[in-house]
Amino acid sequence: MTSPLPQSPAEHVERALCVVAHPDDIDFGSAGTVATWTAAGTEVTYCIVTDGDAGGFDETPREQMGPLRQAEQRAAAKEVGVSDVRFLGYPDGRLELSLDLRRDITRVIREVRPQRVLTSSPERWWERIGASHPDHMTVGESTLRAVYPDARNPFAFPELLADEGLEAWTVSEVWVTASPRADHAVDVTEVVDRKWSALKSHVSQVGHWPDGQMEQFVGGWMTQTAARFGLPEDRLAEAFHVVHTA
Ligand SMILES: [Zn+2]
Q1: Are strands 237-244 and 43-50 parallel, antiparallel or unpaired?
Q2: Which of 34, 79, 126, 141 has most Cβ atoms within 10 angstroms of its Cβ?
Q3: How far separated are the first and last CA of the chain, in Å rounded?
Q4: How far does residue 24's CA lie from ligand 1's centre (Å)?
């Protein structure tokens, strides 16, 4: 007999960890939600698997892109109350499922000991193919494999315990972004200016967008999301598939 899974996410958690492939992934889909969490006193850590060195739109030399995008992500994090930003340094655009990546995410989970993890969808969203970048799907799948079973199993990657003293840790819930199965919406209308500031920190990615385009484009999705979840017309929302993993 196992007890039934909870029907909704925890009201409040002490610690949350966001694991994504690229600098700016959190900011497009989830920075408003992160701002509500930090405002409520949750400590949030970002783990960014690549430095986003295959991104950008101008002549910035490739070897400068990684450090530049790290700095932009740290600035974006600060806008929504996050100061702990970690980079795993994998190559942008070339992520594959590997035991190394699983171990590296497991390590961060055991270090941070979050009750809640946010990550990208391992599942392709056929209606919104742009959300299903292969790196996003790889990070989503690797993170879910790290949440269950690796992080909670002391015999998985035994060197983490033996050499680094990292005890097993069970994550209670995973919030999956850009999921075709989204079942939970967060009303971020009151904190949306912080999301715009976070997004605008990614100058190498959005610096060439005309004034107002971000609010119109990203705000447009958020208005649609709010409508899909039955929120009033003037609201903006971000949506997630919340998976109970404890
Ligand atoms: Zn991305």
Answers
A1: unpaired
A2: 34
A3: 15
A4: 7
What is the per-residue pLDDT across 58-107, written as a single tens digit (0 to 9) for each? 788 888 999 999 999 999 999 999 999 999 999 999 999 999 999 999 99
Sign of the torsion formed by the C-alpha atoms of 213, 219, 223 and 228: positive
Spacing, Cα 2 to ligand 1 middle (Å): 37
**What's the pTM value of the predicted model, to 2 decimals?**
0.96
Q: Which two tokens stand for residue 194?
A: 């912080």
Angle between helices 192-200 and 213-228 (to 10 degrees): 140
| Cα dihedral 217→195→101→245 (10° resolution) | -100
Looking at every residue in the chain, the average pLDDT score rounds to: 95
Query: 187 C-alpha to center of ligand 1: Å?
Result: 23
Rounded to the nearest 10°, the torsion over CA 66, 72, 74, 78 is: -170
| Residues that place a CB less than 5 A from ion ligand 1 | 22, 25
Query: CA-CA distance, 107 to 168, in Å (whole number)?
Result: 10
Half-sphere exposure of 175 (CA within 13 A, CB side): 26
The widest CA-to-CA distance across the chain, in whole angstroms, is: 60
For residue 56, the CA-to-ligand 1 centroid distance in Å is 12
Q: Are 48 and 39 in contact (CB under 8 A)?
A: no
CA of 57 from ligand 1 middle (Å) equals: 15
